Amino acid sequence: MFESLPDRVSVYEVSPRDGLQNETAIVPTTKKKRLLDALAASGLARIEMTSFVSPRWVPQLADADDLCALVDQRDPSVVYSALCPNEKGLERAIAGGIREIGMFVSASETHNKKNVNKTIDETLAVFEPVCVGARAAGIAVRGYVSCLWGCPYEGAIDPRRGLAVAHRLVELGCYQVSLGDTIGVGTPKQTRDIVKLFLAEFRPEQVALHLHDTRGTALANVIVGLDCGVRDFDASVGGLGGCPYAPGAAGNLATEDLVFTLHGMGVRTGVDLERLWEAGKVAESIVGRPLPSKVHQAGVRSLRS
Ligand code: HMG
Ligand code: MG
Questions:
Q1: Is the CB of 89 under 6 A from ligand 1?
Q2: 85 in contact with ligand 1, CB cutoff 6 A
Q3: Is the Cβ atom of 127 under 6 angstroms away from ligand 1?
Q4: Which residue has its alpha carbon closest to ligand 1 atom 42?
Q5: pLDDT in tens, 259-291
Q6: For the whole model, what pTM was predicted?
Q7: Where are the domains of the chain?
Q8: pLDDT tens digits, residue range 90-128?
Q9: Is 60 in the pocket of ligand 1 (CB under 6 A)?
């Protein structure tokens, strides 16, 4: 292990979207902007800031259009992205000046149906014109495949089902597919098997890991992914996160815990850990509850000397 660690990896911050979509309380738009500013100030260069989904399905992100108007998306140092399930979402993304959208589909038929009210094939058919429209508008498209490690409704999932879905997403034009352990059931050997399956068919830059930390295994799975060649990791400050349509989907891998661990291994991220920790404090204050990240709880100041 660790014979060919990279100098640098890319962190894809999802707290404003995956985190806030799962909070019971609806966070005011101006507070979301405070969080975005704090995250950007830490050096995070890819931030998923909201979703253009149905406000009835996810009321927590119903202010996506207003939030876009508050954010300077021409800032070259950060790419702000948003989830987009259909053409209506794309219209909103274009109007909001978004430079990247995320299209999401599940490896599990049941979870997909619960999440977007469509079968997997119907979902991919909806994505086709969205991807064409996004390309015409100069918007990058990223994909997600959820429930690859397991489904809250179906249990074990054959990862080859997710592989087939990922191929369809790449054919549609996704530059990268983020592999989701949506309910945080993955363990390291399983992660190695899944990552090897995908890296046998995709280039490393086409694969990211999106790991929820429900059972405390996300960081161990990152290490396995890193060792197998993955260079892109999704994370969420403070460990916020969860899919409202996947029962048991607790927080994402915490960005602070990821960055602390990577820096300690000599892998750069471009993120200033102290400022990231401060962004975690902002997140904690706007959601009004203690956040689970270990590094958030331990603090980073004592590490300075
Ligand atoms: P539907 O009800 O089947 O859609 O929902 P519809 O097309 O029949 O439309 C119903 C109503 O929604 C209509 O309004 C549409 O205009 C409106 P009405 O005429 O009734 O007033 N509508 C929209 N409004 C705004 N923006 C839109 C939009 N589309 C339709 N884009 C739909 C289908 C996909 C819209 C719905 O199921 C939905 O929004 N689902 C989103 C669920 C979601 O966001 N889940 C969480 C994100 S996925 C996740 O967390 C996993 C991930 O993190 C990876 C991982 O962890 O694995 C990404
Ligand atoms: Mg997620």
A1: yes
A2: yes
A3: no
A4: 115
A5: 999 999 999 999 999 999 999 999 999 999 999
A6: 0.97
A7: 10-298
A8: 999 999 999 999 999 999 999 999 999 999 999 999 999
A9: no
CATH assignment of 10-298, among 3.10.290.10, 3.40.47.40, 3.20.20.70, 3.40.120.10: 3.20.20.70
Q: Whose CA is nearest to atom 49 of ligand 1?
A: 243
Greater confidence (268 vs 242) lies with 268
Measured CA to CA, the distance from residue 161 to residue 212 in angstroms comes to 20
CA neighbor of 55 nearest in space, from 13, 12, 89, 103: 89
302 CA to centre of ligand 2 in angstroms: 31
All residues with CB under 5 Å from ion ligand 2: 18
Encode 208-264 in three state secondary structure.
EEEEECCCCCHHHHHHHHHHHCCCEEEEEHHHCCCCCCCCCCCCECEHHHHHHHHHH
Token pair recorded at residue 85? 């399930």
